[in-house]
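agent> fetching stored inputs for the NAP docking request
agent> found them:
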Amino acid sequence: MKAAYINQTGPPECIIYGDLPTPKLGPDQCLVKIAAVDVNPIDIYVRSGSIPAKLSFPYIIGRDLAGTVIETGAGVKRFKPGDRVWATGQGFAGRQGSFSEFAAADERLLHPIPDGARDEDIVAISLVGITAHLGLVRHAKLQFAEILFVNGGTGGVGSSVVQMAKIIGARVITTAGTDEKVEAARKLGADLAVNYKTQDVDATIKAFAPDGVNVWWETLREPNFERTIPLLAMRGRMIVMAGREARPVFPVGPFYTKDCSVHGFAMFNATAEEQRGAASAINRWMASGKLKAQIDRVLPLSQAALAHRLQEESTIRKTGALTGKIVLKP
Ligand SMILES: NC(=O)c1ccc[n+]([C@@H]2O[C@H](COP(=O)([O-])OP(=O)(O)OC[C@H]3O[C@@H](n4cnc5c(N)ncnc54)[C@H](OP(=O)(O)O)[C@@H]3O)[C@@H](O)[C@H]2O)c1
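agent> prediction call returned; pasting tokens
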């Protein structure tokens, strides 16, 4: 089969597009013919070697997939050949990635694709959607009519957070780096979208939320607690989920005297059952049209190295080159 893989960690040019054997099926796995995959920032960290990861070479890159089951292992109960499925969690904990024509995926990590949903849309929501759901529902416990702030309302995570917070019934403030992206964030449902390059974000937040923000979702890799804690409401919750190297100053006094809490999490720690809970909400909202994928572009799988370069420039070097996800099709 064709696959995008690496024989060593390094820059995007390490990615080889070539032939590898079709994976063998374990008893609790489904062989999936892949229709679409996408790029996440974690793929960049793993490929570049900037975070420790257990990789066996040749290592197929990529976490997420959407496709069709063509064969099932003897122990598989929930799926049969012909079923359309999606997953996030390939390429992790010793598993091979998803950037290939076929993947052997653990049944416990697969979710059905709702009728009518396109492969490219569901794959673009997969990892970021589960992340957003876990953060909002499980960790921040966002409530109806609360005010939520999230940076980057058209980014992968941010666009899912904006839409899901609106579905829950919150009032949503977000930011973006161009006027076009500000408009796109409004279209996703944000009540207030601010251009962080040209507007005074903090003054705009204070005017919108004079008593503070109930949930502050930080997508930036350099959280600034000195700035954000004063903007939190009494009993405010802050989500941190990016920036492994970040060591910011933390003003304890203004934090505990407002009964605030900070919640850190990584979606890959969620159990298969927790992921399935989030996935079923995602499927419901996708099917009803309440949740929409934010796709920047669709590329052929052979352009995996270009996709990695673009994602790296946009997320790590902050060029803002992307508005949402890069999807690739074998
Ligand atoms: N813990 C977890 O489980 C988990 C899961 C998924 C992702 N992550 C991490 O979360 C981070 C975001 O991931 P992503 O997929 O959403 O990346 P992304 O699609 O590249 O989005 C990054 C967003 O940050 C915004 N941004 C950049 N600089 C900003 C600034 N100075 N002020 C306000 N907004 C700014 C960008 O806005 P513009 O484009 O408008 O400039 C963009 O919307 C990454 O570090 C990723 O590794 C963690």
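agent> quick read of the result: The two ends are 10 Å apart (CA to CA).
agent> awaiting further instructions
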